[in-house]
Amino acid sequence: GRLAAGGPDGVRVWDLDNEERRPIGFAGQATVDGMASLKDGTLASGGDDGTIRVHRVKTYEYYREILRVTEDVARKWFAEDRLGELFDASVLQYDELLTIDDDDAPTGLGAVASRAVVTQARNLDAIATTLKSAPSSKRDACIDDLAPRVLRLVKDEELLLTFEQRLVSKSAVEQLTPSPLFRVVLNFKFVAGPRFVLWLDIILFLTLFVSFTRLTIVGYGYKGLHGHNIERWYRGEKTVEIILGFIILTYYSLKEALNVYYDRKRELAVRHSDARNCFFKLFGQAKLPPLFTTGPQALRSLTKLLVYAVKGPLSWRKKLSLIPRIVLSIIAVLLFLPLSCLPGRSVKAFVFGVVPSILYNTLSLLGLPRAWRSSLWNWIEVTSLVLSWTSFARAALSRIPVNLAVATALFLWFEVFDYLRYSAVNEELAAFVLMIGQILLKLAVFMFVFVLILMMFTNLFYLRMGNRHIKRYFDLHDDAPNYLDHPFNNLLKSFYSVLLLAFAQEFDPDIFHTTIDRVIFVFYLFIIVIVLLNVLIAIVNSQYADTSARATKLFYRGRFELVAETSDFLRMLPRRRNIHSETIQQVAAMIKREVNRGTVRDAIRGEDLREEVLRIQRETDAKLLEMQAKMDAILNAVTSNNS
C-alpha cells in the first residue's frame, strides 16, 4: 500500500510495500488543502488556489529511474520501445516537480523547480544521444512516436511562462534549452509568433534610427560623402520624421509597459505566499495578534508593529529596511479606508493581499518586478526610450542639442546589439554578441580594482607635479604658448593622462623631471603594464574559452527569453498569436535534424575545444611577448634620458 500526506509543500507519498522511508514529493501544487484516493488508484489533491490535480502514482523504482536517467537507462527503454513513455515521464516530473527526499534535496519553490529542469535536460539529452546512435529503421519509428508528444509541448501556450512563475534559475534554463528535443520546441515556438514581432521591432527601430539621424544632421552644416551639405529629401520631411518617431516610440513604450505589467503580475502571485508567511512570522516575533477585521484594528496592529521595528531587537539593517515599508503600509491602509465601504471591499482582504507585498516585495508592487529589473538590457532600453522621447520633443520645438544627440545615439547603438543577440538571421552572430556580454560582466571586479589603482597613481602624480609651472618644468616644445597646461595640472586631467599612459603607452620622458618622479613612473609601469594588463588578457582569454563552449547554450537561452517575453505582447495581437500550423511530419523532420546535430555535450566532447584552448594560448603568448617588447623600449627610453 501507499501512504500520502498533503501540506504547504505539496504532496508526499510513501511506498509501504517496499518499506521505503524516503517519500516521493509532488510539489507542483503549492499548498494542498485536501486529498482523495480514486477508484483506479490515482490520487486527487485540491490546492488553496482552487486547482485540483490528479496524480497517477507509480512505484518508487519508477520515479527513481526517471529522476536519474542515464544513457544506459535510455537505451534500456529504447530497447523496450518505451522511449516515448520516458519522454512523457521527463515532462511529467517537471510538471509535478517530483522529488525524492534525500540529504541534498533542495528546499523552496525555485530550487525544486530548477533541479527538476536540470533533471529534464539530462533526460532529454540521454534520449537524443540514444536516438543518434540507434539503427536508422528503428530510430525513424521512434521519432515518429515522439513527434506528437513534442508537438503537444510546442502548442502549450503556458509552457515557458511556468519557468518564470516557478522561479527557475537562469543556469537551469541554460542546461535545458540546448537539448535537441527542446530546441525543436523553441524553434517552432519562435516561428509561430516571436519571429514576426522581432522583425517588426527591427524594421521600426531602423525607421526610428534613420529619422533621428536625419533630424540631427540635416540643415546644420554636416557634410555627406561628396563633401556637400546634407539637405532634406522633400518638403515636410522633418514633420514626417517627428510624427513617425512619436508613433514608433509610443509602440515601444506600450510594449515595455506591458512586459513590466505581466512580469509584476506573475511575480506578485508567485511570491505572495512567501511574503504572507514572513508577515505572520514578523507578528509572531513581535508577540502581537494580527487583528485586521476593521480599519482601526489594522492601523493599531501596524502601529504596534512599527513600534516593535523601532525598539525591538532587530539589526540596524533590518530596521532601515523595515521601518519605511511599515510606514508605507500604514499610509496604504489609510488611503484604502474610504473605499472599504464599497461592496466587495474589506480591510482584512486588503491587508492580507497587499500589505505583505508592500513589506517584502516593495519594488515589485511599485512596478519594478525582480525579473525585469535584474536585466541590464531592460534598463538600457528604458534609458534609450527616455532619451529618444526627449530628442524628438526637442526636434519638434527647435533643434536637438548636440550632447543630447550624442547620448541618444549611443544608447540607440546599444539597442542594435540588443537586437543582434536575438538575431533571427545568424546563430553565430547572436552567440558572439552574447559571449561579449558575458565577458564584460566577468570583468566587473577587475575594472573596479583597475580604476582604484589608476586613481592611486593619479593622486601621486598630481601631488608631485600639480603645482609646477609649464615654462620651468615642462618646456617640452619651443612653440608652446604660455597658457598651455601640463598633463597633471588638475585631478581630472591627471586621471586622463594616467589612463592614456596605461593603454596608449606614449609619453615624453622630460615630463618626469626628478628622480622621485621617475621612480613612481617605473613603479606605475610595472603595476599597470606588466601585472594588470596581463591579468586582463588572461581573464578575457579564459572567459572567451568558457563562453565559446557555452555559445550554443547562450543562444538558445536568449531565444527562450525572447519567446517568453513576446508571448505576453502577442496576447494583444490575436491574429498573430502563436499561429501553430506545424504537422507531425514537420516536427519529426526537425527532431531528426536536431538529433543529428547532437547535444552540446557531444559538441564539446571532441577535439574542437582543445584546439580552441591551444589557439587562445598561442595568441596570449604572442601578446605577452609584444607587451614585453614595449616595456623594454619604455625602460630603455627612461634610462637613456637619465644618462
How would you characterize this protein structure?
The protein is mainly alpha-helical. It contains 26 helices and 7 strands. It has helices spanning 60-66, 71-79, 83-95, 109-133, 136-154, 159-165, 170-176, 180-192, 194-217, 237-286, 295-311, 316-336, 347-360, 362-365, 370-373, 376-397, 402-420, 427-442, 444-465, 470-473, 491-503, 515-549, 551-569, 584-597, 600-605, 608-642, and strands at residues 2-7, 10-15, 24-26, 32-37, 43-47, 52-55, 98-100. The strands form 2 sheets. The protein has a 4-stranded antiparallel β-sheet with strand order 1-2-3-7. Strands 4-5-6 form a 3-stranded antiparallel β-sheet, with no helix packed on it. Strand 2 and strand 3 form a beta hairpin. The longest helix is centred in the middle third of the chain and has 50 residues, at 237-286. The protein starts with a strand and ends with a helix.
Topology:
Elements: E1 2-7, E2 10-15, E3 24-26, E4 32-37, E5 43-47, E6 52-55, H1 60-66, H2 71-79, H3 83-95, E7 98-100, H4 109-133, H5 136-154, H6 159-165, H7 170-176, H8 180-192, H9 194-217, H10 237-286, H11 295-311, H12 316-336, H13 347-360, H14 362-365, H15 370-373, H16 376-397, H17 402-420, H18 427-442, H19 444-465, H20 470-473, H21 491-503, H22 515-549, H23 551-569, H24 584-597, H25 600-605, H26 608-642
Antiparallel strand pairs: 1-2, 2-3, 3-7, 4-5, 5-6
Helix pairs in contact: 2-4, 3-4, 3-5, 4-7, 5-8, 5-24, 7-23, 8-23, 8-24, 9-10, 9-17, 10-13, 10-16, 10-23, 11-12, 12-13, 16-17, 18-22, 18-23, 19-21, 19-22, 22-26
